[in-house]
Design a protein that fits this description.
alpha/beta, six-stranded mixed sheet, globular, 16 strands, eight-stranded mixed sheet
């Protein structure tokens, strides 16, 4: 099953908005409208779904969310689906999605991160459809920092397109913007310096592989199930190995360490040529830092481990295409990830 890339979006194409996990409460609706207007400014037509309620922890009952997501992803008139953000319980959709229909439908871009890893990663593994782990709809109005790209650029690119991203050199140290008070905020607060770092040792690195990964706290719950069979994907689509990326949303170092151990024991990293680890603001423990947690769990892989990558919950965001071919370079003077849509 070769990786399937959705056709590139062109002006006039439709972008579906739905909340497979958490919806958007009334206080934040203006930010949602700002983000929608930015998508429309690129020439796309926005189709707003019904599953958007933000009064509780999910936007609608699981069956309704699954039906709407399946409908949008299989509608030939919808070219991309972009949820506002993640949430907590997207896992309840997995047995309810029509996977047979998703396999045969023309591929549609699905974009998101955090709890959306629960859906986008299995979608790539089970249907071969490339998906985008990256800045979601509510982040879209932010100006993209130099060195990074927006999901809007990726969904507009043709198959075979190659793009390189480099660390901007600064990130947000604490907190989040208040969308209720500042719904039109467009500039990230990037107040802390920092770049990628190698955890497993030293030396220049250049390694390739097909990209797959996501949020540790959500994916760890899928290990051992049919929804996260990375080994089969590697055998069929990545004979030369994988570049696996993971990121911690907020769990403490002990929890992350346990989760990564479990994922490794379940075979999630078996075909990894290298592991990229997202920058996190999640707490360390007195005797175990987040970096030490990663090394404790993944050190036995004996592959390069690059940390502080912009693929997590700390702004800014570096979109990664699940299924794309990646080339990772890390030296004392250069860090970059090149992705090719092949």
């Amino acid at each position: 099953m070769p990786v399937r890339y959705p056709r590139p979006l062109r002006p006039g194409d439709r972008v579906g908005i739905t909340s497979p996990s958490s919806g958007v409460n009334e206080k934040l609706r203006e930010r949602l409208h700002v983000a929608i207007r930015d998508v429309e400014a690129r020439g796309f037509e926005v189709v707003l779904g019904k599953c958007m309620d933000g009064s509780g922890h999910v936007s609608a009952p699981a069956a309704a969310r699954a039906d709407e997501l399946t409908s949008l992803l299989t509608d030939p008139e919808i070219s991309a689906v972009v949820p506002p953000w993640g949430g907590e319980l997207a896992i309840d959709l997995l047995p309810l999605l029509d996977w047979d229909q998703l396999r045969v439908a023309e591929p549609t871009w699905l974009v998101g991160f955090s709890d959306l890893s629960t859906i986008i990663t299995p979608l790539t593994l089970l249907t071969g459809t490339a998906t985008i782990h990256g800045n979601n709809l509510m982040d879209t109005p932010y100006r993209t920092p130099d060195g990074l790209v927006s999901w809007l650029d990726i969904v507009s690119a043709p198959r075979g397109h190659q793009f390189t991203q480099i660390p901007p050199g600064h990130h947000r140290s604490t907190g989040w913007d208040d969308y209720a008070a500042q719904p039109e905020v467009r500039e990230y607060t990037l107040d802390a310096p920092g770049t990628w770092t190698r955890l497993d040792g030293s030396g220049d690195l250049e390694v390739e592989g097909r990209l797959i990964g996501g949020c540790i706290e959500t994916l760890c719950n899928l290990t051992g199930t049919a929804f996260l069979n990375v080994s089969d994907f590697a055998r069929t689509e990545a004979a030369d190995g994988l570049l696996v990326y993971v990121e911690a949303a907020g769990d403490d170092a002990f929890t992350i360490c346990r989760n990564l151990h479990g994922m490794r024991l379940a075979g999630f990293f078996d075909a990894a040529n290298a592991v990229l680890v997202g920058r996190t603001s999640a707490p360390s423990a007195p005797s175990l830092s987040q970096h030490q947690a990663v090394l404790d769990a993944l050190g036995p892989l004996n592959v390069p481990i690059i940390a502080e990558v912009e693929c997590g919950h700390v702004p800014p965001y570096m979109p990664i295409v699940n299924g794309a071919h990646g080339r990772l370079v890390h030296t004392s003077t250069r860090s970059e990830l090149t992705q090719t849509l092949v």
